[in-house]
Write a structure and sequence with these properties.
The protein is an alpha/beta fold. It has a single domain, classed as NAD(P)-binding Rossmann-like Domain (Rossmann fold). 42% of the residues lie in helices and 17% in strands. Strands 3-2-1-4-5-6-9 form a seven-stranded parallel beta sheet, with helices on both faces. The protein has a two-stranded parallel ribbon with strand order 7-8. β1, α1 and β2 form a beta-alpha-beta unit. α1 crosses α6, α3 packs parallel to α4 and α4 runs parallel beside α5. It is globular, with a radius of gyration of 17 Å. About 2% of the residues have low confidence.
Length: 230
């Protein structure tokens, strides 16, 4: 008997918000496509979430268009549909326009901005077939400028991308949600900090947006820890 459960694709799925979202999505019956640059952690997560019939690990460098196309093609070959695409892959850099290296800057901008755009482009034809859902990981840093932060600039771009996409897919039934976390205890930070959110907190917000009826499109979720001032 064919499996008609909906399919949820997540980039940057090996840890943090991506992995937490995968676990929450699995709990409510989604089949998962888990994508990241390295499959070491992905393979273990896919096994945890049900193995080949329920969760698929795919190596994908989101800055490479061919990888993104292959990721979606593999999704359709294995599961036959795509219902949710979560463009979550991203990382940061030290503050200060004389900090870090130009090489790190380049990789961050390509991953955070172009990578998200590539995920949208690769997934959109399949999502039109299912009147699916696109989610983007933005940031509080994409709502207010942060001194010396090129990372903040990339997240401003993602904020604009979310609204541009929403307007572009109007009339297709596709929903678009920008998720903007504040400080979260994930591998994104070098050390844990008091008063931060857990990755599970963000995953619950993601699933809230996804779980709304088709006529409800939650466009933005700005979620900060109570203790965060800015």
């Amino acid at each position: 008997m064919p499996d008609h459960d909906k399919v949820f694709l997540i980039t940057g799925a090996s840890s943090g918000i991506g992995a937490a979202t995968a676990r929450h999505a699995a709990q409510v019956g989604y089949r998962l496509v888990l994508a990241a640059r390295s499959t070491d952690k992905l393979d273990a997560l896919a096994t945890e979430l049900g193995g080949p019939r329920r969760a698929l690990a795919v190596r994908c460098d989101v800055t490479e268009w061919d990888d993104q196309q292959a990721m979606v093609s593999t999704t359709l070959d294995r599961f036959g549909r795509l219902d949710v695409a979560f463009a979550n892959a991203g990382f940061g850099a030290s503050r200060g326009f004389l900090g870090g290296t130009p090489e790190h800057w380049r990789e961050m901008v390509l991953t955070n901005v172009l990578g998200a755009a590539y995920t949208i482009r690769a997934a959109l034809p399949a999502l039109k077939e299912t009147a699916g859902h696109v989610l983007l990981t933005g940031s509080v840093a994409g709502r207010r400028p942060i001194k010396g932060s090129l990372y903040s600039s990339t997240k401003w771009a993602v904020t604009g991308m979310g609204e541009s996409l929403r307007q572009d897919v109007h009339g297709t039934g596709i929903r678009v949600t920008l998720v903007e976390p504040g400080q979260v205890d994930t591998p994104f930070f070098d050390s844990p900090g008091e008063g931060r959110l857990d990755a599970d907190d963000i995953a619950r917000a993601v699933m809230f947006a996804v779980g709304q009826p088709p006529h409800v499109d939650v466009n933005e979720i700005l979620i900060r820890p109570t203790a965060q001032e800015g």
